[in-house]
Amino acid sequence: MPRLRLPAFLTRPRQLTRSSLLYMALALLVLVFVPLIVTTSRWMHAVRIDLTADKLYTLSPGTLHIVDGLQRPLKLTLYFSEHATRDLPQLRSYEQRVREMLQEMVARSHGRIRLQIIDPVPYSDDEANAEGSGLTAASGGSNGERVFFGLAGSRLSPDSENGAINQVPEKALSIAFFDPAREAFLEYDIAKLLYELDQVRKPPIGVISSLPVEGKPILGQQPWAVMRQLGQLFDLRMLDPAQVKRVDPHLKMLWLIQPTHLSADALYAIDQYLLGGGHLAVFVDPDAEMQGSPYDVGGVLPEHSSDLPRLFAAWGVMYDPRKVVLDRSRALQIELAGSSLNHPAMLGLGAQELNRNDVITASLQRVNLSTAGYFELAADASTRLIPLFQSTGDAEAVSTQRTMQASADPASLLQDYQPDNVHYVLAARLQGPFHSAFPERSGESGHLVASRGNAEVVLVADTDLLSDRLWVETQNILGQPMMSAFANNGDFVANMVDNLSGSSALLSIRGRATSQRPFTRVQALRNVADQKFLQKKQELERELADTRRRLEELQPPKGANSDTLTTEQRREIEQFRQRQMVIHTELRNVQHQLNAEIDALGLRLKFINIVLVPALVILIGLLYGWRRTRHSRRRRS
């Protein structure tokens, strides 16, 4: 029987080529690295690098501290009307900035923050939810649509049985609208929302006041509007200054309003509270008009001025309780004896007198004060005084006695008025290292000699701004009292308490640069061309004025026939028209030159970005590849 022989290609071992080995190596790499990537994706995160000049996308240490310390899961919903803003490029650009900031916080939260982005189209459930969350719609969208651009936040409660997250929110807050003008405080506003959502209870605020801020229920007087407003958000605790021996360190903030005749123990308690990391606001007044009438204290005239001389001296603050600031350029108009007059001691401060770089006053438009004092910093002070609002340079400081004597005739304060050419600081932040005003008590247990790092105090040299008469009026509508604000005094106090009652991390978040970076070269070209344009425009206006004056001299009297115009008059009119056309042509040429220079600059930038830079990258890659190929050939040879 013949033997069966197998083909040679089945009996010889197959030799692996170089390409086969390469494919096998690639397959092995895939088998090894794919499972490795999948298993490590849960704990390995992409490295995020902020290459912007002002570090716009780098969260500040204060924000990182708030995000890392969140105790409860939070849900954030960003409402943005995508369709309604298709013709609003600036708002769309700012929405991208807000979204990227939120995404950066979400990435840092390790799952504690959930972000959802919704386009609330008109007449939808999403639009109703946006309004129900407290968002405010702006007008001016495409086709007259309303524009929503706000953030709704809620704190979710964990299910006590299985540890899952209950979708029913325990607490809800919102940012009604992201105003691009407030971009410098975007990070602060979002961090503040996160901090407040994470708080389980109302923050406790301590109040020491010699003014009737709580009203007088026996006499039917309601609490001041500012106190009613704050009571909705904070746990206000009125402290008796005669009983204060120690300030609870758990108070988020201590608020002094017209502190008069405080005992040494009360002052020491305030001193130690501040040095221990507490937040303090002090409202003093050289003439507190709401102090009360003479009949409130047995016919004796109450003291209308307040001061903290020992604490102020230790803090490096100079304050004179016998001086009032007058400012005739910011005088409020009042009604007195049936006539209207400007009261130079009652001031209506506008946006120019308010600090636009501080989160407390950045969004305010008007603050009204009355008989306010001022603060200065001592020459040897280790602290820093940052004005919140101040007077104009047309102000004058006069004695308190003079303003009180002129209460029946405020116009007399303008007699012999001499401006001091000084911008008096009426309210300010005081920052820096603080030292105890009671060094003699260093032997007592727990005594603090200095503050722990930089402390902060808000100083206001007026208490009348808290009273209803300077910022709000109450109207009775359908039996319900409705408050109508005509100044931002209440907003100022709310912003101040919000800022100071937050954590120290929240206080550390300051205003930042905006994402709108101007084209400086283009702006410089525009400025140069505008100067040329302005010169030509002024020349045209001068010639127009001269020609009109000449025409008035040459024109016949009114009612006369225009045919009576002389040849000289017609020649003058024709020359004017010809010259006007020439100057208009020159103006158009200047504008064309401006556009040509800007277009040329734009073309150069496009060439650099689109052609030159990619060409350089390709050239570098080709040179690198050529060198590697040449080196490999040399090694093989």
UniProtKB/TrEMBL annotation:
Q: Which residues form the ABC-type uncharacterised transport system domain?
A: 202-496
Protein name as annotated: GldG family protein
Entry keyword Membrane: yes
| InterPro entries hit by this protein | ABC_transp_unknown, DUF7088
Keyword match NAD = no
Q: Where is this region: Disordered?
A: 547-568
Query: DUF7088 domain: from which residue to which, for each copy?
Result: 53-153
Q: Which organism is it from?
A: Rhodanobacter caeni
**What are the TM regions of this chain, as residue ranges?**
21-38, 607-626
The source's superkingdom equals Bacteria
Q: Which UniProt keywords apply?
A: Membrane, Transmembrane, Transmembrane helix
